[in-house]
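Listing S7. Sequence submitted for prediction.
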Amino acid sequence: QVHLVESGGGLVQAGGSLRLSCAASGSTFTIYAMGWYRQAPGKQRELVAEITNDGDTYYADSVKGRFTVSRDNAKITVSLQMNSLKPEDTSVYYCHVDSRVWGAVTSSLRRYDYWGQGTQVTVSS
């Protein structure tokens, strides 16, 4: 079983910075992309940032220019550098792995999603 260990959450004042990190370990698996989601109370979980094995990145409009996602393929880790934090960034942040396995019989990819336990980020005004 794959498990993800997150670190770096905490309390910071508006305008400050935090860096989240996530390390993947466990059974052998193929990673297509790694990234970060967040979910605040009463809200839907939303994709914040993602990076593929090819290095392509995606950012939610609300964090573009402020957050940077990166990965270390050798260590199987993904990080999220968060700058110019705003109170509305307050949420639980979840590390996510998009794993895809080729199925020879069907000649198609099977997708598996793995999630971290979540780490709290609180931004005070």
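Caption to Listing S7: primary sequence and predicted structure tokens for the chain studied. The longest strand covers residues 91-103. Residues 36 and 95 are 5 Å apart (CA to CA).
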